[in-house]
Amino acid sequence: MKAYSEDLRIRVIYDSDSGMPTKALADKYRVSPAWVRNLKRHRRETGSISPKQRSTWPRRFPVEKLSELEAYLTQGAIAHGWINELWTVQRVWELIKSKFQIDLSQGTVWRILKRDLKWSSIKPQTVLRERDEEKISRWRKQEFDEIRRRTQKRGAYLVFVDEAGFMLQPTLRKTFAPRGSRPVTRVSDPHGRISTACAITVSPKRKRLNLYFRLLPDNTNFTGHSIASFLKYVHQELRSPLTMIWDSIPIHSADPVRRYLRSQREIVLEIIPEYAPELNPADGVWSYIKYGRLANFAPHDLSILRKQVTKELKELCDKPKHLASFIAKSKLSLDGR
């Protein structure tokens, strides 16, 4: 409420009590009708016509304390008694009040995080509690290097294999629209799906990258037989020893897969640690297509979806730089550095 003089506020309330309407009061005293309504509501709620007192919150956090605050934040929220590692404005406000005995407004806390500490608002990612972070780190930094060395000694291809499904239900991402008007994407048969498998291959000498893929019939899931068939296809295309790297889902150890691997001594199997899809560069293929190329794509039927997925995968076959970026994102070193 704008702080006009006390004399004006008294005269407005006097005339209001005499029955003068809000619009007439605003015209008479050259103020806005909203100000008159706020003054009347303020008197009803507080019994006073004095303006609200300004906040006593300090507007700034001591600059010399910023490094100390960031050190506390870097320790993580769990270290300060919260159940997870998420730093919200509310939590940072409580931390500042506890550690520095300074009671800031939450708007000031937000500005400290964004402007002074250069922190960003980032949507958290979900990971399973069963993940063994130490094992995952060791595999990435030590075990994969040994795998790479043995593969190079054999003159074999490194082959990263993964499977995924594409649904008629689209992967939705933010788009632009008039304020208050939420865009609508219409779908048909949202459970219709296409199962796909892909393999990123790395040649033994020149480290050339390539992509092989296969799509199953509509609404069909991969089984031990179809996975074994895909491995056979990749092996026949490369005609060379392989070190095949994938995760430990059950179909990867199904009888048809084990029989094929026993019959092919040129193929060595290596398993990625559990709950660590980010270690498999082939997972980047799906992220690139689903969340990038086909985001908000809602085809009428599976034939259109199949055609588009095939097109995207074929184009990736001719984009070795994209495949290299998927390997780089997994933080796996192909040269031992």
SSE string: HHHHHHHEEEHEHEHHH
CATH topology of the largest domain: Nucleotidyltransferase, domain 5
As a percent range, the share of strand residues is 5-15%
Q: What would you call the structural class? A: alpha/beta
Number of strands: 5
- Which regions have little confidence, pLDDT < 50, spanning 5+ residues? none
CATH domain class of the largest domain: Alpha Beta
Whole-number mean pLDDT: 91
Task: Please tell me how large the radius of gyration is.
Answer: 31 Å
Helix content: 40-55%
Query: Which sheet architecture does the biggest sheet show?
Result: 5 strands, mixed
The order of strands across the largest sheet is 3-2-1-4-5
Q: How many helix segments?
A: 12
* Structural shape: elongated
The termini sit apart by 64 Å
CATH superfamily of the largest domain: Ribonuclease H-like superfamily/Ribonuclease H
CATH architecture of the largest domain: 2-Layer Sandwich
Number of domains: 3
Task: Describe the fold and architecture.
The protein folds into 3 domains: 6-46; 63-116, no CATH class; 133-173 and 187-330, Nucleotidyltransferase, domain 5, CATH 3.30.420.10. Helices cover 45% and strands 11% of the residues. The chain has 12 helices and 5 strands. It has helices at residues 6-17, 22-29, 33-46, 66-74, 89-100, 106-116, 133-154, 224-238, 255-263, 281-293, 302-317, 320-330, and strands spanning 157-167, 193-202, 209-215, 242-246, 267-271. The chain has a 5-stranded mixed sheet with strand order 3-2-1-4-5, with helices on both faces. The longest helix is centred in the middle third of the chain and has 22 residues, at 133-154. It is elongated. The mean pLDDT is 91.
